[in-house]
Amino acid sequence: MGTGIVSILLHNLPYNVTWISHGLAIAFFVLNVGLFTVFTAITILRYALYPEIWKAMVIHPAQSMFLGCYPMGFATIINMMVFVCAPAWGDWVVSWAWGFWWLDAALSLATCITVPFVMIHQHRPGLQAVTAASLLPIVPTVVASSTGGIVAEALANPDHAFITLIASYILWGIGICFSGMVLALYFHRLTIHSLPSKEAIVSVFLPIGPLGQGGFGIQQLGKVSLKLLPQTTAFTTLAPSAIHGGEILYFLGIFLALIMWGFALVWLSFALISIATMQKFPFNMGWWGFTFPLGVMATCTGMLAQELDSSFFRVATMSTAALPISRVIMALPLEQPGFKAMLNNFHDVWQEIRIPVILFTAFGLLVLRFYLHSAEEKGDLKAFPKVLNNEKPQSKPKPQPKPVEEKKDVKPIPVVESKVPKSSGPRRIKGGLVKRPSEELKNGDGLARTIRPLIFFSSITANTPKIAKDYAERLEKDLQKTAAETGCSFMVPEVLDLAEVDFDDYFITPPKSDEPVELFYLFLLPSYNIDTINDTFLEHLQETHHDFRIDTAPLSPLLGYSVFGFGDREGWPTEDEGFCFQAKEVDKWMAKLTGRKRAFPVGMGDTKRDYAERLSEWSEGVVDVLGMVAKTGSLGEGLPGSGAPDESDDESAAEDDDEVLIEDSEAKPEKLKNRKNIDDVEDLGRIMKNSNPDADTKPSAAPIAVDFTTYGKSAATKKTPTQGAKEMVPKNSPTYASLTKQGYSIVGSHSGVKICRWTKSALRGRGSCYKYSFYGINSHQCMETTPSLSCSNKCVFCWRHGTNPVGTTWRWVVDPPELIFDGVKANHYNKIKMLRGVPGVRAERFAEAMRIRHCALSLVGEPIFYPYINEFLGMLHAERISSFLVCNAQHPDQLAALKAVTQLYVSIDASNKESLRKIDRPLHRDFWERFQRCLEILREKRFKHRTVFRLTLVKGFNVDDEVEGYAQLVEKGLPCFVEIKGVTYCGTSTASNAGLSMSNVPFYWEVSEFVTALEKRLNEKGLKYGIAAEHAHSCCVLLASDRFYKDGKWHPRIDYQRFFELLEERGADGDWKPEDYMGEATPEWAEWGNGGFDPRDDRVDRKGRKIEA
């Protein structure tokens, strides 16, 4: 595209010479054809070999937008065929150009329709995610219409030209109208969410493209219409005045071009001002993105200059074309004939344009001066002599420690002079790094840098957090001494819990900072043989490494990293048997993600013996490395294999002076022939070919996994301990102890049951939960359980206290549903029996409680995650126990496979992607896509199941200005009911670390205001929902669809007897609807405005004293 538009501009400049219009222009045309041909061939070959990549690219929210660049680049070749090739080679070139144009028009129309549809159907970007790149698949239709006008003007056959003209007008209308909508949306995005990021600031030039190209195209089409219409049978009834039709289109084209040129000038001003106000933006390849938009604007300006015979527009053309052509200035071939011709014509041309050129040049220099002064990004100072720090020159400069300069918003560790003498004993070898003094150090030079250590830890007890905090304080003191020796600034180490951080913020790319801060990662990790956050973290690192969309070493900007592991030698005596195995795994994957930046070997300590001593030794080594990094800016040089993820045979190879770098496969030992293959994704086709059993050579083993690096040579030969499926919550694990302490009874290895506080309250006649007010469920006959204690989210308001397992896939032992069903019933009844002696328990309700009538599948974890959830539900229904299943909208496949359930809940904790990520902290990377798919599945199931959206309101997270977003989600899923409930603060340290406190709990009046606003917005959208019931004590209100509004009353309650009858008569897959088992109307005491407290019970205060209504 960029090369093509430069060739077109060079050919059509208003002030031109032969060596430019027929020299440089043709040279760039040839270059454009060559580049287009080569990259087209590569692209076809790539997608032919790896067709699965094509689908991934088409549905990618960013990469798919650039499909429109292909027809635009092709159109520039067609234009130059008409401008240059046709006059030289004859009319047959025009015929070829005409055929190519039809192909280009079809491709343009295809991208204009399909890519936006995929964006609407698949991506569903929020307003903040909208960029000017959304124009890229649309603009090709405008470019094709302009090219059609050029081809139509050159066609000898009037009928062919007329068809091309009509098609071009249609393409122009499609592209301009569509672009106008996108421009309005993009402008709205800019006004709401401000300018794009520094890296993408050049995208503000893109809106100029459709306006400039549209202005040129409508002029060219009008110009062709003026000549062509009188030659055709168009306007048959007005044949004598056909010439007037051409004139109208011609003048209309110039009129519209002036309007679009002015609008493009506005966007150009926005772009220039945006860049001028953007401080320290980086230069990258994307900066060539302004070439095509400014180029087509120059063509529009040039056409206006030609048709209006305006010197102003001629000079404006030259000025606008300066930037796109600037890339060729250094390569201008000043050949003698062309140079002389330019000198001969220079005087005449200069006399005509000198005044406007001088004015434009002066203005341009002022703008350039302002731009360079205010927006130029200064390069980092790498090294400078310390003598420059002195105010007066010295004849014999002596090295002085560089004072630390305090930066804004940076809390550096103060520099203190160290007076402790160095140890005179033998030096301990600590890391295996060859520390060669650099030339800068020999010359007394130093580095000005700020280093920020980040300490990550994981824990399911209170030990590791305390160790991490103490270590951070000790490290801070040690770095004070290092700062004095190196002259560098060390920020206070920051301690981060892996269970609380968002992995994407730290382990896909390092977190960005406004200040020039360099990061150093440290890990303190216990190893567990149960499922903990460590497993999720390792899974994330592995997925990041294997994700083809992410660079091979995305964490390479880090200065380095090091890992210390805690283990127990009583259970795992050796490393091969599992001692500190998870710390070693983290070290391996970090080596791959950082590009071999292991700063210090993995430290390992026994929690029952010597961890303190081992941690101290490891810490000394880390401080030593940080001091070296502060001085040199790198980890130094190491032996072959230093920093590699796995142990290998490099050590023996390094000792061999006759090392063979390139070996023939026939010469390899048999044990190396069978090693694990780690290949690039581009080589998969070759691998499959080589593994053909019909091949002449011995087939190699199929690749075990796709890996994007080639670290290590003997990974397959290394003996690693094999482990079968683990129990999710073993009885001897801290997780088991913590959950039982919270009141859970663990059933099997992954299920749990607990008595709800509302069950205890109902037994004593002190009120029931909102389920009784809404759906008629007796709280004292309700069993709360879950067949899966594992979850895929880490919600900030969760009750789990950070102790239950998390994961994205089921990788544990699976207990049979019969064991779970019998276990949860037995444990529930045991807990009920323990309440018989509690004061105030009513005998009749205690007797009723010994017959479970309802099961709430919620608690912690994700019940739908259990592989046999349908069988478990069937067992409940067989004993006429109704079922309420709650899920977090992260497992769409399991949701789609779900069979009969009395009521199906989906937790809707946020209305947009960013809020959901912040409040639910999901583990799935495609969490938003999974969330959307679950809503679509719920919409399909709304006539099969009673579907409920549960909105948990957390003030400061998902309440403010999100009514519209929730209304859109309701419109998408069309649930039968919407429960809006204020969050219950659990008061755990987990919630506090996530930023959750009592201030985030909304008052009931705030929930009520939200409900009324949501009801109003739903009705404005034509969705008939109304307030069906409330339960003020639970801070909960129910909205219901008008499907459950009958005889002037809301009927959210359930006829449980009828539900089981339908299930037995028609089966789980039978044809029956939620309305078929709709129950009684909402009782008066539960209607909106009456509070929802059961009048049969007594309200009491915290001390059990009765409260009069």
TrEMBL record:
Record's CDD domains? Radical_SAM (cd01335), TDT_SSU1 (cd09318)
Topology with regard to the membrane? Answer: Multi-pass membrane protein
Q: Please list where the region (Disordered) is annotated.
A: 385-431, 634-677, 1083-1109
Output the Gene Ontology terms for molecular function. 4 iron, 4 sulfur cluster binding; FMN binding; metal ion binding; tRNA-4-demethylwyosine synthase activity
Q: Give the pathway listed in the UniProt entry for this protein.
A: tRNA modification; wybutosine-tRNA(Phe) biosynthesis
Gene Ontology annotations for the cellular component aspect, listed alphabetically: membrane
Q: Which organism is it from?
A: Colletotrichum karsti
Q: Which reaction does it catalyse?
A: N(1)-methylguanosine(37) in tRNA(Phe) + pyruvate + S-adenosyl-L-methionine = 4-demethylwyosine(37) in tRNA(Phe) + 5'-deoxyadenosine + L-methionine + CO2 + H2O
Query: Where does the protein end up?
Result: Membrane
Full protein name? tRNA 4-demethylwyosine synthase (AdoMet-dependent)
* Biased composition regions of type Basic and acidic residues, renumbered to the chain: 665-677, 1094-1109
What does the UniProt keyword field contain? 4Fe-4S, Iron, Iron-sulfur, Lyase, Membrane, Metal-binding, S-adenosyl-L-methionine, Transmembrane, Transmembrane helix, tRNA processing
Q: Where are the transmembrane segments?
A: 20-45, 66-89, 101-120, 132-156, 162-188, 200-218, 248-273, 285-305
In which family does this protein belong, per the annotation? Answer: Belongs to the TYW1 family.
Primary location recorded for the protein, binned into one broad class:
membrane
Q: Which coenzymes or cofactors are required? A: [4Fe-4S] cluster
The catalytic activity of this protein is classed by the Enzyme Commission as 4.1.3.44
